[in-house]
């Protein structure tokens, strides 16, 4: 079976099997470079990625505020539980999108 002519980032040959009429896999095909770039750019702007970053920021700020005494520990604990549930929901959304 033919293998991709591309190389991995570490310099070793790509091991993916390609069709008889192909020389490269999707990841290494120079003709599909722009398509890969668009897909990566779209993924970076996806809503779940922004939501996860926002939650991480909020959790970090919440932790700092609890440790500084600006937020009551009980309120901080409840808020972190709510954010954790939200984070799990975002993770579930990501898994569902991957399966689609």
Describe what you observe in this structure:
The protein is mainly alpha-helical and 100 residues long. It has 2 domains: 1-44, no CATH class; 46-99. It has 3 helices and no strands. The chain has helices at residues 33-44, 47-68, 73-99. Helix 2 packs antiparallel against helix 3 (73-99).
Mean pLDDT: 87
Our count of helices gives 3
Rounded to the nearest angstrom, the radius of gyration is 22 Å
Structural class: mainly alpha
Report helical residue fraction: 55-70%
The geometry reads as elongated
Main beta sheet: none
What's the number of structural domains?
A: 2
Q: Termini distance?
A: 29 Å
Summarize the structure.
The protein is 61% helix and 0% strand.
Q: What characteristics describe this protein?
A:
100 residues, mainly alpha, 2 domains, 3 helices, 0% strand, elongated
Reconstruct the topology from this structure.
Blueprint: H1 33-44, H2 47-68, H3 73-99
Helix pairs in contact: 2-3
